[in-house]
Amino acid sequence: xxxxxxxxxxxxxxxxxxxxxxxxxxxxxxxxxxxxxxxxxxxxxxxxxxxxxxxxxxxxxxxxxxxxxxxxxxxxxxxxxxxxxxxxxxxxxxxxxxxxxxxxxxxxxxxxxxxxxxxxxxxxxxxxxxxxxxxxxxxxxxxxxxxxxxxxxxxxxxxxxxxxxxxxxxxxxxxxxxxxxxxxxxxxxxxxxxxxxxxxxxxxxxxxxxxxxxxxxxxxxxxxxxxxxxxxxxxxxxxxxxxxxxxxxxxxxxxxxxxxxxxxxxxxxxxxxxxxxxxxxxxxxxxxxxx
Length: 291
Prior knowledge:
It comes from Chelatococcus caeni. This protein has helices spanning 12-20, 22-43, 45-66, 73-93, 96-113, 117-141, 147-172, 187-210, 219-247, 262-287; strands at 176-178, 182-186. By secondary structure, it is mostly helical. The chain has two domains: 28-142, no CATH class; 145-248, no CATH class. Helix 1 crosses helix 2, helix 7 packs across helix 10 and helix 8 (187-210) crosses helix 9 (219-247).
């Protein structure tokens, strides 16, 4: 029996077809996003802060576009501007109360601009939602010694959870996680993502401790915290899916080729950032001197 002929190598035409396909655009966009996120995180400073100020602004605009306030363009633009200004204030001053003051001024402006109570409440909710993206990474990266580790830990937990949940869910299938909101997500994917996110978070901290950073954090505690963050991130993904289903859209936007909007890429990261932000507030309160 004749052996099968070897498959011919990829031709320029087949490569071009892949790059022009939905998967190709998604792959290239994903690589670019990861490169920008890691590069600015490593560099820190103004480049990192501007990236997250822009991300927060775009998230706020997309949120308003998905909400009952969508007809009021000024609310989306005003909220985006408020988040960006608050993020820049935090970056320049390093003073969270100043950033929150800027955010409060923006909230007052949105309340004045909204036509009715419903649109005002949705716009204010979008402002708060987006502020987590615009402020928490900036505050976390500015932490002495451990700032970069915290950001890399957030990336590792979110990215590995997402990748493992996708492949585990596709390979094993099984009962759906929440079919009325996200028909493709399964419990097997959830658990696979949980395991991978937990291990990834521990790996980042273990490498940091090997280099003399964050040595006071027990790895078992890091693993537990990573598991909570992984689960929370997956809930954040589901929450955004519910918002999009309510709005009757597939994606929050079209700014990222193959990926949709900024909210689509940062829904799980938002949930993890919220946990980190709460941790920063609690640790700040614990360190504050008694009056």
